[in-house]
Amino acid sequence: MSNATVAPLPASKATVNDQIKYRSQAVAKPYFVAAIGLFIGQILFGLIIGLQYFKGDFLFPAIPFGTARMVHTNLLIVWLLFGFMGAGYFLIPEECERELYSPKLAIITFWVFLVAGALTIVGYLGLPYNVLAHITGNDLLPTMGRGYLEQPLITKVGIVLVALSFLFNLSMTLLSGRKTSISIVMMLGLWGLAIFFLFSFVNPNNLVLDKYFWWWVVHLWVEGVWELIMGAMLAFVLVKVTGVDREIIEKWLYLIIAMTLITGIIGTGHHYFWIGTPGYWQLLGSIFSALEPVPFFMMTVFAFNMVKRRRREHPNQAATLWALGTGVMSFLGAGVWGFLGTLSVVNYYTHGTQLTAAHGHMAFYGAYAMVVLTMISYTMPLLRGREANSAAAQKLEKTAFWVMTLAIVGITLSLTAAAVTQVSLQRLSASPLSFMETQQHIMPMYWARFGFGLCFFTGLMMYVTSFFVTGKRES
Amino acid sequence: MSASFTKSTARNIFYGGSVFFFLIFLGLTVDTTMAVPSHNAKAQLTDAAVRGKKIWETRNCAGCHTLIGEGAFFAPELGNVYVRRGPEFIKGWMKAMPTNVPGRRQMPQFNLNDAQLDDLVAFLKYSSQINTNNWPPNIEG
Ligand code: HEM
Ligand code: HEM
Ligand SMILES: [Fe+2]
């Protein structure tokens, strides 16, 4: 079993593929295809809720805002997880210099995850949420109805099983293979992801403690262990496309993730200012989270530095562009927009406003969506049997990069403008307006956000189209 | 970076720093958990409030609203709605939904019975009693 050279493969063409080093790496392909498919779904639901922001009765009561929003955010998380898993199945065998422990298990896991995910979305859209909760065992252990963790208990258990199968498969591969720093950091990040997800089962009746541990999933994911995954994926692609000495790249990787956890763990305190926790969190949370942009800035410098010092001209220029874009956009979205609201004296006024949504969009796109797209950009041509796509396909992919990225900048700026109005009318004013009155003053910004949303969707369609563009291969 | 600064130095900073700060975080978590009851001495987590929390969760209220600033940003803050509007207004509001005003943001009808409405109000009362260090800045949330 351990040397799975005769393992069954998903794509028949993979047997003649000389671009991938280990045949079992081909299991990554369905994961990436599913990720892109779910990404499209996420954006369609984003457009629905973006429209409902100014046309409040759109699709009501068939799809209320809360339902569509849940589909939007859950699809985001699930497609990123598919992306991380695909990345893991490609990266670990390559780094460990051996076949995956069990390609068959990887394919079974894929289908289980996809079907469970699809059924959950059908449940959200087809059943009243309380009915879904009731028939899926929420009365046994209430875990539903909290942001990002809306999944029924059985889905959450399913996610844990899928994660365990995935981690078992990769860990067995790593144990008997070459252990590089990149593969170890990737595995630490993925194990951390699974371990902190277990806090989604913790839901104390005490609202303060409920909120306190909710952030152990949400914050310790995106400002903790996911950054390890992101760093490892970025480092892997940079080693490949730049040919820079692995020792240098891995040194950077360790320094970046050291800064991540040194600042980000106590930085969780920026969510503990007002939820019923002691006042000392205002100082601790402000100081440590104010330093959280540092690792994101290092990520940017790292990407540009490695590309500048490149030892080879890799024909896949689109992948290089995505890698550089990840560095810049994650710093802007997480580092700069996160910082805007992170000091307790500022957060007092911006907490739970459109600034949070502005930051959430640019950070999730700039860091995690883009790093997954970087990995897909680098690996998909290889999985399809060529070193890089044709010049025409790369040109379209690069255009899609710019359209999507600029659209997110547009969405972020619209929501930031919305936040300025909201904070001044509803929070700072001597005679504050009510929430709903304030919203009336912001409508133009929501129109603008929707417009940029349509641009984003256009960019995404160009991106998908780029996979079907053929043409002469670039040398 | 200078050659004397090696990869293994970087790795040691990573492991040492992470473990160190995670342990501090665990210590702070123990302290916070112990301090929460006295910090929130005014908050009455009654049986009705516990049942109300389940209603809040299983109707996905946080899919549109914030509760002490967390949730979604489509509809008003509800952590202090008990103070802003009072119990009778809240129950009447829930029964009157949806408004069906054309173009206005719509809230679903959840068909809660009187006992459920009382539980929900008890939960919102409890939420409003949490010691938020004076957040939000004003009653509008
Ligand atoms: C890629 C990394 C990051 C991602 C994906 C991310 C995403 C998010 C999201 C989605 C929220 C909203 C959570 C909710 O209430 O539903 C949030 C809140 C917040 N984030 Fe980040 N974030 C990242 C990094 C950062 C960094 C580095 C900082 C600080 C410099 C930061 C500061 C904040 C603050 C202060 C809030 C709370 C806003 C409020 O009070 O309403 N974030 N983040
Ligand atoms: C067509 C483009 C998009 C539109 C129109 C859109 C619209 C929205 C809307 C209206 C919300 C709900 C805000 C609220 O709670 O009131 C939302 C939430 C969210 N969206 Fe999007 N979205 C789009 C694309 C994206 C992309 C590309 C990402 C990330 C890669 C993303 C990530 C998120 C996240 C993380 C939240 C939760 C934010 C939070 O809790 O702070 N969205 N989106
Ligand atoms: Fe955070």
Descriptors:
heterodimer; A: 475 residues; 72% helix; globular; disordered N terminus; B: 141 residues; mainly alpha; 2 domains; two-stranded antiparallel ribbon; 2 strands; 3% strand; binds protoporphyrin IX containing FE; binds fe (ii) ion
Folded structure, characterized:
The complex is a heterodimer of chains A (475) and B (141). Chain A is mainly alpha-helical and 475 residues long. Chain A is 72% helix and 0% strand. Chain A has 15 helices and no strands. In chain A, helix 7 runs parallel beside helix 13, helix 13 packs antiparallel against helix 14 and helix 14 packs antiparallel against helix 15. Chain A is globular. The N terminus of chain A is likely disordered. Chain B is an all-alpha fold. Chain B folds into 2 domains: 39 residues; 82 residues, Cytochrome c-like domain (Cytochrome Bc1 Complex, Chain D, domain 2). Chain B is built from 5 helices and 2 strands. A two-stranded antiparallel ribbon of chain B has the order 1-2. In chain B, helix 2 crosses helix 5 and helix 4 packs across helix 5. The longest helix of chain B has 33 residues. Chain B is elongated and about 70 Å long. Chain B starts with 6 loop residues before the first helix and ends in a 12-residue tail after the last helix. The complex binds protoporphyrin IX containing FE (2 copies) and fe (ii) ion (FE2). Chain B: Keywords: Heme, Iron, Membrane, Metal-binding, Transmembrane, Transmembrane helix. Chain B: This is Cytochrome c.
